[in-house]
Amino acid sequence: RSVVSLRDVTKRFSNGTLALSRMTMDIRKGEFVSLLGPSGCGKSTALRIIAGLGRPSQGMVDWPASRIGRDGRPDADIGFVFQEPTLMPWKPVFDNAFLPLRLKGMGKGEARDRVMAALETVGLKDFAKAYPRELSGGMRMRVSIARALVTDPKLLLMDEPFGALDEITRQKLNDDVLRLWSEKDLTVVFVTHSVFEAAYLSSRIAVMGARPGRVVADMMLPRPEGRE
Ligand code: ADP
Ligand code: ADP
């Protein structure tokens, strides 16, 4: 069953750049899809459209399992992890992870258990009171993953999240993401330009090409042993 479906999605930015051209793709429940392709081929643009953060210029995006809000975006929760951790440096870890719930109007007391559960999931529950500057790069990225998980999303979108980190940290975080995927009944779309990362993580690899800016190869991988 599809979680997101793109039909002939074309995206032309106001400066004339054609980022996507008739991209068609279904993301099914439970998949771990890597979107692979060279810089500038439209991976981030596609991910933002999947998140409902950008609208197609032509074509359709649909979230069949979600109700669509008045703003045209799915009201089902979608977690988004950006390239940089994008934390508020003046706020402790707890407040950073709490942000999505605060934006939904939830009070801190009410949110406490969920925020702490998300921090525990990424191994940082003892760091709730720490400030981002006190953490390593890998730990900051884990805070941003906790922030994406705090609303208990069904769909987790990650835009080249670990590209700025050293290989060992990156590999540890990849294993964390795999653990989350198998434990939490998540569908994941993971943008990367690392073939290695895509092969290590995914149940499916979709390769995008620069021109035309759409999926040019789409492969299902057998799930490694021990994974659901
Ligand atoms: P990728 O994530 O694969 O590197 P992007 O989706 O970021 O690719 O970008 C696809 C193309 O669209 C690139 O040529 C990029 O320069 C262009 N682009 C991205 N965002 C904008 C924007 N807001 N305005 C104009 N052009 C953009
Ligand atoms: P990175 O992922 O950036 O390499 P690590 O997760 O390896 O960072 O941790 C960097 C430092 O912070 C290490 O000294 C590690 O012991 C400490 N650290 C990281 N996570 C925790 C944690 N959950 N509890 C205690 N110490 C931690």
From TrEMBL:
<feature type="domain" description="ABC transporter">
    <location>
        <begin position="4"/>
        <end position="228"/>
    </location>
</feature>
<keyword id="KW-0547">Nucleotide-binding</keyword>
<dbReference type="GO" id="GO:0005524">
    <property type="term" value="F:ATP binding"/>
</dbReference>
<keyword id="KW-0813">Transport</keyword>
<keyword id="KW-0067">ATP-binding</keyword>
<dbReference type="GO" id="GO:0016887">
    <property type="term" value="F:ATP hydrolysis activity"/>
</dbReference>
<protein>
    <submittedName>
        <fullName>ABC transporter ATP-binding protein</fullName>
    </submittedName>
</protein>
<comment type="similarity">
    <text>Belongs to the ABC transporter superfamily.</text>
</comment>
